[in-house]
Amino acid sequence: MPRRSAPSPAEVLSELREPVVPVRELERLGLDRRTIARRCRPGGPWRSLCPGVVKLSNGSVVRDDRQRAALIVAGPDAMLTGLDALHLHGVRTAPSPHGPVHVLVPHDRRRGRWSVVRTERTRRLPVPGARRHPVAPVVRAAVDAARCSRDRDFVRDLFADLLQHGHGTIDELREELAVCSSRGVALPRAVLGEMTAGVRSVAEARARKLVLRSGLPVPRSNVRLTDRRGVLIAVVDFWWPEAGLAWEIDSIEFHLSPEDYARTVRRRAALSRHGVVVVQTLPSDLRRRPAEIVDELRRCHARALAQPRPDVVHLDDAA
Predict the structure, then answer these.
(1) Pairing relation of β-strands 101-106 and 79-80?
(2) Nearest CA-CA partner of 200 in 234, 251, 132
(3) Which end of the chain, N or C, is less packed with Cβ atoms under 10 Å?
(4) Which domain of life is it from (predicted)?
């Protein structure tokens, strides 16, 4: 009886319907290891992504291929976390995922060594979200991404975007950092401390650090200013209540789209009409000319103290 020939690449793809598959699935269809290896050679119809995982085409390897391969080698109950999970959750403000795919696995699983995947064992394996692949919840994924970074600005941006776009809250981040692995938590905890103080952007964090070295009184952050009837005038980045001085970081570089700029101009005009002295600073200037900014703040603080207090109410006044 003639030996049955191995299924063709087209037949395999039709049967499995997945672009990335484990070698054991190919063996189940009747292909031996030698045939699989031959088809994965340069110029062949397939590509080997890592030991035991094959891409059923020879095209470019995209991020989705790497995510599938990582989940295959990580084993059952594995799920994506970090930037890969945030991307699949639709958090478009997060950086595009790159490098090894960050995957959570049960704590009792042996951790293999593959270039395509970074496996992290955990005793707190969450219920995966229903996306293209199983993914950790948004806040867990953000904290896991932050723990893998040494870049303070990256963590500031990541957490700020998470909060500003409604993907999580300060309390949720704090709770996750309290119970997560202790590895790499110092930086995200420090950034969360900044945010608890009211800072919501990289620029505001730099500004806060600068003003603490200026010798001026410590200002309040993200303060709501209203008129005497309680009508909102503006929310200012920094506020010196004893002087009636507002410091605004020009947020068009960080927060706003260009079409929102007119709204920013109108808000600052309203502040001036109510007698508020406003200092306006570009985020890039915080790095380029910090000494000049400190001098400007000192001069404006002195000028504000010398004139009548503005006719505005801030949070403490309203209380």
Answers:
(1) antiparallel
(2) 251
(3) N
(4) Bacteria
